Amino acid sequence: MSALHHGGRLRQAVAEFGIDRSRWLDLSTGVSPWTYPLEPIALEQWNRLPEEEDGLERVARRYYDCQSLLPVAGSQAAIQALPLVLKTMTELPQEPVVALPRVGYKEHQKAWLRAGWRAELYDNEPDSALLAQVQALVVINPNNPTGHRVPSMRLMQWHRQLAEQEGTLLVDEAFADVDPKDSISHWCPQPNLVVLRSIGKFFGLAGIRAGFVLAEQELLMALTDLLGPWTVAGPSREACRQALADRAWQQSQRARLERAALRLAAMLSSLPGTLSGTPLFQTLICDHAEQWHRQLCQQGILVRLTDEKDGLRIGLPSSAEQWQRLQEALLTLN
């Protein structure tokens, strides 16, 4: 599988459309436009190697309600490494099989294929016949870009079925922080269960490249051996610690994102197509996705064209000016 494209490729858009970077409205990433207001980070954090005894793991265990976790350089680092780790930890067929969502974050599929797994794809949710055939199941909950959610009890039913056949359930909860009712983080650690969490999306801190793996200690130790030491930089660890500890800001952020998501959904509802999403983005599946993507870019508005090129994933504007600009641009689509 060749290099994948993601949201946030603003420099490429600047070069292609000849519009100055300062004039772009980037709604392509699904990252909150409101960033956690960090306190100043001590200068020594930039000078010293990262240390684990800095309070990060303690506040993360409380935030995720899980006592066994590992900070990593964004959930992307774990996505790339876990298929290899699982092959070394368990007895598997010569060509193990993983079930993956047909529509979803494609870095998952790329990583499993590269590690020598065979992929079986499912739409929205796997059926019991598929589960009986696989050694691993990947669920993105809520899904990016469809927004499809799987109830937590159904996830745990799948986990029990997989565990009986020594299979593993991996749930990517990168977009779960706004409405965590379907999160299964609190069910970790359990055998054959792995949950990935992201700091970048909800906290608006994508640039620090930090996330967490929630799993049993044996798996975390194997993952640590593969990733090596100092996977998260000291300043990033401090930024995470501050953000995860601030319950008042988290509550305010959830309310703000939910209001903005409702406003965006209402704005997009007049366009032809099928609308779905999460409190961090809305996805419009439509017949003219490629054409509309280009028309928006020509006006300096960058949204995410889905991998299937049949939809647009649109993030949240953050100011009155941005809302007005998006609304006016949508009226020009044809």
From TrEMBL:
Enzymatic class: lyase
NCBIfam families: L_thr_O3P_dcar (TIGR01140)
GO MF assignments: pyridoxal phosphate binding; threonine-phosphate decarboxylase activity
PROSITE patterns: AA_TRANSFER_CLASS_1
PANTHER family listed in its UniProt record: HISTIDINOL-PHOSPHATE AMINOTRANSFERASE-RELATED, THREONINE-PHOSPHATE DECARBOXYLASE
Gene3D superfamilies the record matches: Aspartate Aminotransferase, domain 1, Type I PLP-dependent aspartate aminotransferase-like (Major domain)
UniProt source species: Ferrimonas sediminum
InterPro entries attached to this UniProt entry: Aminotransferase_I/II_large (IPR004839), CobD (IPR005860), NHTrfase_class1_PyrdxlP-BS (IPR004838), PyrdxlP-dep_Trfase (IPR015424), PyrdxlP-dep_Trfase_major (IPR015421), PyrdxlP-dep_Trfase_small (IPR015422)
Function as written in the Swiss-Prot or TrEMBL entry: Decarboxylates L-threonine-O-3-phosphate to yield (R)-1-amino-2-propanol O-2-phosphate, the precursor for the linkage between the nucleotide loop and the corrin ring in cobalamin.
GO biological process entries: cobalamin biosynthetic process
One Pfam match: Aminotran_1_2
Cofactor: pyridoxal 5'-phosphate
Entry's EC annotation: 4.1.1.81
Protein name listed in UniProt: threonine-phosphate decarboxylase
Residues covered by the Aminotransferase class I/classII large domain: 68-326
Pathway as given in its UniProt record: Cofactor biosynthesis; adenosylcobalamin biosynthesis
Reaction it catalyzes: O-phospho-L-threonine + H(+) = (R)-1-aminopropan-2-yl phosphate + CO2
Keywords: Cobalamin biosynthesis, Lyase, Pyridoxal phosphate
